[in-house]
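Whether sequence alone determines local backbone shape is best considered at the level of individual chains. The sequence in question and its structure tokens are set out directly beneath this paragraph.

***
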Amino acid sequence: LERTRPRLSSFGSRVEFIHGPFHALPEYAAKLGWNEVDGILADLGVSSFQLDEPERGFSFRMGGPLDMRMDPSIGMSAADWVNSTSEEAMADVFWQYGEERHSRRIARHLCWRREEKRFETTDDLSEEVRKAVPGGFRHMRIHPATRVFQAIRIEVNQELVELQTLLSVGPRLLSIGGRMIVLSYHSLEDRLVKRAFRALDGNGFHLPTKKVVVSSDEEIEANPRSRSAKLRVIERVS
């Protein structure tokens, strides 16, 4: 928000800046006196600024404290989660949110290692994940910690829970002709959006684009991080 305020300052009172979770959207709208809105754009991606700041602890490519919270002032950090979660619960998160095939093997190793020394940094965690996977998976193009870091981030921030709430309350706020657009970046998110929008289709809502919209080759070349982006739209018609 601090980066955005100066850029949109020319719009004056036409712009309201609110820092908060998706589940509080109806509350924010009510406080502003908005009974309905013409559009909702939800970009589910992690901010590039957050990814590129080592002290936020989102990336295994840059050493930093093991945090991963979107809002560092609330909730449990990734370090606290890794150091306190049971082996079974940890493995379930790695499998469900990261679709990690070696989830149980990794969880077992991390729980064993934390008995010797508490996990505090991204480097430490990524290295132990690398050690945990079978030898043939340690030097592949995709780092073995990729899915584990994604899973922990989703769990710490309750991202899918927040998304499900947004998909429930968002469409109800739309005016007739209003559209809700959601940009997702991995299959778990896209699956939830797809199911929610399809369930609404024909029940006062319409899908302007039946198929998911993806980035063009030109856009990917200009912005490589858009490669995994998927866009879905729903419109309220009655």
The first strand starts at residue 37 and ends at 43. The two ends are 34 Å apart (CA to CA). Residues 5 and 217 are 31 Å apart (CA to CA). The first helix runs from residue 4 to 7.
